[in-house]
Amino acid sequence: MKRLATVALTALAPISWGSTYAVATELLPPDRPLFTGVMRALPAGLMLIAVARILPKGAWWWKSLVLGALNIGAFFPLLFLAAYRLPGGVAAVLGSLGPLAVIGLAGPLLGEKASTKSLLAAIVGAFGVSMVVLKAGAALDLVGVLAGIASAASMAAGTVMTKRWGRPEGVGPLALTGWQLTAGGLLLLPVAALVEGAPPALDGKAFLGYGYMMLINTGIAYWLWFRGIGRLTATSVTLLGPLSPLTAAAIGWAALGQALSPVQVAGMAIAFAATLVGQLPARTRKARTRAPLEPFTIAEQNDRNISMDLVNGQVRR
After folding, report:
1. In the Cβ-directed half-sphere of 179, how many Cα atoms lie within 13 Å?
2. Of 219, 231, 110, 225, whose CA–CA distance to 161 is shortest?
3. Which of 80, 199, 271, 296 could be cross-linked to 33 through a Cys-Cys bond (beta carbons 3.0 to 4.6 Å apart)?
4. How far apart, in whole angstroms, are the C-alpha atoms of residue 42 and residue 48?
5. pLDDT tens digits for 6-28?
6. 3-state helix, strand, coil in the chain (%, to 5)
7. Would you list the DSSP string of 159-220?
8. pLDDT category, 258, cuts 50, 70, 90?
């Protein structure tokens, strides 16, 4: 029951990330993905650090920088580059390959054996997502494809290294999340300024959208994600990833009036089923051991023979 609650809470992170597209298109200024990344990560990270009131010490300064770069600072620009260079469906499918990358890295870095169940769940989940988001005749762009693969690899490496390094003694997931978001936001800040220029003018809708993105979509969501990484296997956590594009499709249908074809509905069912299968605990078989048989002594053999004769209604004379 405790594991089920942890899985359910961790799943809220990718479900929240699935709302990013709807919020960005309906509330935020257009064509400012890097500025949006900064507004998501940096204020949320500083807020969590202020709540936790703990700063990194020693090696955790550079570890936080590495994790922040992998999970935020490199992941966001690569993801946005893929989204701009590729049709949304292709970018989403490339992102859904992340669980396979985590499974591949978790073996050598974490000692987590890749089970057949996990591999099948990752492959079937990616296939289901492709049925939901991929459209016929989608054009491919080499730079976009490479950016999509690199973004999935960056997030996968960040997930595995977060699990490998754990947390310093006495530090909770709230502080660790704050360190990573702050580091990632600081890395994004000069890139956003260089590429997109000065911040755009913000109206009430934008403040509402950025407030949601900072607090719910990033601060709480990443806290739940890193909390889950600390309590579950890296493979189990990453197999929750398909919930993000599935949520985006569901919101598009329910709130934005986007139609879902039968193929898309079937893909949603397949990807969701694969996600559930990926969370099933592995079965452990306990080997039955028998004590080695020792030869009877002469006296024990005689007693055994007499007992057998009595059972058979005979008395040996």
Report:
1. 25
2. 110
3. 80
4. 10
5. 999 999 999 999 888 888 888 98
6. 75, 0, 25
7. HHHHHHH---TT--HHHHHHHHHHHHHHHHHHHHHHHH-SPPP--HHHHHHHHHIIIIIIII
8. confident
Cα distances (Å, whole numbers) of residue 313 to 301, 303, 305, 307, 308: 19, 15, 12, 10, 9
Q: For the packed helices 243-254 and 262-278, what is the interaxial angle rounded to 10 degrees?
A: 140
Q: At a CB cut-off of 8 Å and minimum separation 6, what does 79 contact?
A: 91, 95, 147, 148, 151
The answer to whether 279 and 233 are in contact (CB under 8 A) is no
Average pLDDT, the chain: 85
Residues across the chain: 317
Q: Which residue matches tokens 């491919």?
A: 140
pLDDT of residue 101: 92
Helix (H) or strand (E) holding 295: none
Q: What are phi and psi of 203, to 5 degrees?
A: -105, -175
Whether the CB-CB separation of 102 and 159 falls below 8 Å is answered with: yes
Q: What is the pLDDT of residue 22?
A: 85
Q: Determine contact, residues 205/72, Cβ cutoff 8 Å.
A: no
